[in-house]
Amino acid sequence: MVLPPTAYPLSSGPFPVLDLILTTAVALFVTIDPVGLGPMFVGLTAGMDQRYRRRMAIKGTVIAALILFFFAFAGDLLLRALGIGFAAFRIAGGVLLMLVAIDMVFARESGVRTATADEREEARHRADISVFPLAIPLISGPGTMTTIVLFMGRAHGDLAKQAVVLGVLAGILALTLFVLIFATKVSRILGRTGITVLNRVLGILLSALACQFVIDGILASGLIPGKG
């Protein structure tokens, strides 16, 4: 059984739309991590000219956008086709986002939100890194795909809220493209320490949001009498 939108603590305050914008923006910003992508993109395109970097940034972001918008519109249908209840997906999504948060807080690279060392090494021998590893898994990784499906599910049946989620997604992708194009300058401004501190703070916020998704899933599952 799916809870109505008013059942979600994060979107039931006096300004539910603003709450939805903020929570969606934080979740997508953290899982896509435009700031953290900057230094990685610089490393993957080392020795290449600015024209090549710009082309890879635009192409990779567009491909990632197509993937994420596909999951936004078809995610629910895919779950139904597989016989997966949305309550179960909320719990699974919360667990996955918690793993992403742990990676961020402890500055680890498990491949959940970033490319692994082997994947980055393979990418260095590619003439085109836009699809792999830029679009997948760096921009549209498992955590980001899960996040967009969860938030579209949270806004189920409400076209205005779904439009808000999609608008926030477009905004974060636009910010990601901006950071990639000016990756060298952004990395220099923030510095390695600044990027690390920002990622850890955002990781703590994401861990709280992940817990909320797990709680939502348990409540929606009917496992607790009178709460389903």
UniProtKB/TrEMBL annotation:
Q: Where in the cell is it found?
A: Cell membrane
The UniProt similarity line reads: Belongs to the UPF0056 (MarC) family.
Entry keyword annotation includes Mitochondrion: no
From the record, give the transmembrane residue ranges: 20-44, 56-75, 81-106, 127-151, 163-183, 204-224
UniProt-listed InterPro entries = Multi_antbiot-R_MarC (IPR002771)
Q: How does it sit in the membrane?
A: Multi-pass membrane protein
* Gene Ontology terms: cellular component: plasma membrane
User: What is the name listed in the Swiss-Prot or TrEMBL entry for this protein?
Assistant: UPF0056 membrane protein
Which keywords label this protein? Cell membrane, Membrane, Transmembrane, Transmembrane helix
Domain of life of the native organism = Bacteria
Per the record, the major location class is membrane
Q: Which PANTHER family match?
A: UPF0056 MEMBRANE PROTEIN YHCE
Q: Supply the source organism for this entry.
A: Nitrospirillum amazonense
